[in-house]
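Q: Fold this one first, please.
A: Sequence and structure below.
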Amino acid sequence: MTEIEALVNQFPDRFLWGAATAAYQIEGATAIDGRKPSVWDTFSGTPGRVLNGDTGEPACDHYHRYRDDIKLLADLGMKHYRFSISWCRVVPDGRGAVNEAGLDFYSRLVECLLEYGITPHATLFHWDSPQALEDLYGSWRSREIAKDFADYVAVTVQRLGDRITNWITINEIPCFTHMGYGVRQVPPHAPGTIVQTPREVWQTSHHALLAHGMACQAIRSASPVPCSVSLVDNFAVSVPLMETPEHVSAAKAAFPFCGQNGGILYPALTGAYHPEFLQQLGENAPEIRSGDLEIIHQPIDRLGFNIYSGVYVRSIDHDPGYEILPVPPTYPRMHMPWLQVVPDSLYWGVRHISETLNLPDLPILITENGCAADDQLQAGEVLDSDRIFYLRQYLKAAQRATQEGYPLQGYFVWSLMDNFEWAWGYDRRFGIVYVDYPTQQRIPKASARYYSECVRQNRVV
């Protein structure tokens, strides 16, 4: 590669490179040192809910092996690590007594990261809410959860905030609300609660937004040092079928109506539900009390963007002016039904925040990007060229966003290692490190070497 070609693929000098995980997916140790059940323990322990009857025990046994895992992270050249803190380790009943053993685990984890020169980025909620609150008042169906969450956040930040200065309130509100509550049918995600109307589902995401807003306030009040506060969303991305003016305009017009964007991303970042989106919800719109939107719309220092796929949009000559296109059956995808390969979704997600929402100064981190592949361990190695292909294309889209001046500041690959993939159990592998579950051996895949080289050279390799 020539010097000019290398520069074309280069990222900015202070670009953050890292890897991401989540507590329930890797920690195991679900019933020791004072931890009590989360809704995912209950959900995965219910027959028929998770593939092969898998549960989060022992997962990757990270609770006991975290030092080796952090050393592996350092060996791969990572300087940033996004992990989540389990609410039911720190405050096992969701409210009330604090579990010192739980806080001590995360304190030791953070100390180990700092010993290796790795910056911690802590997510305060990644789907594992305490089962005790589900039993008490129905988890996210109740406004009470926002205050309980903020109280847990305050305790955690008070105790760890001298060493953690990058905080994320909540991960992917659409998933644990709109996939966790099913209208007259069992949903595919914990808490797995059946409700009677779509309005009840929208009420859960509204309560999650309140929890985010109150958590932002709690972090800033409790942190002993200046810190960064973020929200992570997996907002849906409308990608123009062709980058011509009419199709770009159509993709921007479609953006508020993709997924739950108008009712989750918009209130969090703009202080209001998108008006036309709210009008479309009609009687299904949630109750929004006086003062709610002011609580929800807290200033954030960064937006975390989890991106895996997207939808193509084209311009049409009648209302609404755009059409979201179906995915052809032959379109390439990775080892999940929903994981179509749409690299431009990363670029357009970043661009939509800057242009469609008119927030050009809001810094963005790619807090998750990666793919499931049908990884096979052969002769002691995993040659996952399909994952390398996927990562290379998405990293090119990230590099394009930085080159065009959009405020993309970093990238975290999902995931550091294979883990408990929610309702898919241990059947689907997202890691750049292979986990042999019977022995808990960690084996870096070819993609780990590839990603490590991108980090080392600060460019798309």
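Q: Good. Now the second chain.
A: Here it is, same layout.
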Amino acid sequence: MLIGEMRDMEAGWIALGQFARDAIERNSEDWLFAAMEELFGPHYDYSELPFAERLSLGKELSERILILCAQQDALSRAESYETIAYYYNESGDNGLAVGLIELALNLVDGGPLPDEDKQEWLAHLLRVLTEYKGEAAFYGGIMPPPK
């Protein structure tokens, strides 16, 4: 709310940084995901936040999420990979971001989802992959629908 609606970047950054540090300290999957989404999710303009500090927190959050996701089922791992791919893409490691989305695609495709849900999730991941690659991405004959 501080960053998105009130545009109070200073107070928002302080609160967001504390939230991320709390998530790291708790080492809770839900908290880590929420903090990563708040720091790197596609729904905010982060241009006025301290870039280096954001990346530092993102690095630690992503490392913890990767450790925790090793114990998850395939679909939860796919969600983890998608979540941390935002960080890697923004940090400049686009190759790793693309690789994580490709892993997520494979996990979702092989997962036990109803076909409609699977196709929706695959289409979403393909849109993300297309954005990261900067060109049309395909998976198993599927091409992402336009936004």
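Q: Anything worth noting on the second one?
A: The chain has six helices and no strands.
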